[in-house]
From TrEMBL:
Keyword Nuclease among record annotations: no
Keywords in alphabetical order: Methyltransferase, Transferase
Matches recorded under PANTHER family: BTA1P (PTHR47473), METHYLTRANSFERASE DOMAIN-CONTAINING PROTEIN (PTHR47473:SF1)
UniProt GO BP: methylation
SUPFAM superfamilies given in the database record: S-adenosyl-L-methionine-dependent methyltransferases
Record-annotated Methyltransferase domain positions: 48-148
Protein name per UniProt: Methyltransferase
Domain of life: Bacteria
GO molecular function, one term: methyltransferase activity
Gene3D superfamilies (alphabetical): Vaccinia Virus protein VP39 (3.40.50.150)
One Pfam family it belongs to: Methyltransf_25
Record carries keyword Transferase: yes
Length: 217
């Protein structure tokens, strides 16, 4: 069995039951998601992709904020996609949000969605759970069109928070197979430099959350 499918099985085990309470519980600590979405600002007719779309919460919020754009989401967990699909229908957005089961590390948008590139791609609290997250970011950047942007939000280094809090948080995150990427900004800058793109780093809530933005020229 490949590492990708091992990871898919792990995510299925973790979220098969948690998906039912995911949004209600995660809103208290997945900080930075809404500021990241607010910064997407896709133009009229733009296409947006979320990698690791989970329950569809972010896609639904983004679709409501940007009614002129079309949205797509992929996830490696079939259970999460089932929940996302039901949520999209309940929100009446099935005409503007398309979902697909896919592994972000080997995702072919042409086969899955019938398009080769997107204007915006975002990843929300997923790189901390993807073993080959650097490759996923490089792959995502390759699916952006000219002037496209990759937005990534995840746990930061919590540098401005008490040491006891940082220690407790990281212990708790390990229980759920989450590993904050302390080199997120460094990797983003390296990826951007290799593609003649620009990179912006944002630190929120005393370092609790980080947002990395890579923009194609």
């Amino acid at each position: 069995m490949t590492a990708a499918f091992d990871h898919g099985d792990l995510m299925e085990r973790v979220y098969a039951r948690q998906r039912h309470i995911y949004d209600a519980t995660r809103k208290y600590y997945l900080l930075g998601r809404d500021p990241m979405i607010d910064g997407l600002k896709p133009g009229a007719g733009a296409t947006v992709l979320e990698i690791g779309c989970g329950t569809g919460r972010n896609l639904i919020r983004a679709a409501r904020i940007y009614p002129q754009a079309l949205f797509h989401g992929v996830d490696i967990s079939g259970s999460m996609l089932e929940t996302a699909g039901a949520s999209v229908v309940a929100a009446g957005l099935q005409g503007r949000i398309r979902l697909a089961h896919a592994d972000a590390a080997r995702f072919n948008p042409g086969k899955v969605f019938g398009r080769q590139s997107f204007d915006r791609i975002f990843i929300s609290y997923a790189v901390s759970m993807i073993p080959g997250w650097q490759s996923v970011m490089r792959e995502a950047l390759g699916h952006l069109g000219p002037g496209g942007e990759l937005h990534v939000v995840d746990f930061g280094d919590q540098h401005g928070l008490p040491r006891w809090f940082r220690s407790a948080l990281r212990t708790w995150l390990r229980w759920y197979h989450v590993t904050p990427r302390s080199d997120l900004f460094a990797v983003s800058a390296e990826i951007a430099a290799g593609r003649d793109a620009t990179m912006e780093a944002k630190r929120l809530y005393r370092g609790f959350a980080w947002i990395s933005i890579i923009r194609n020229r």
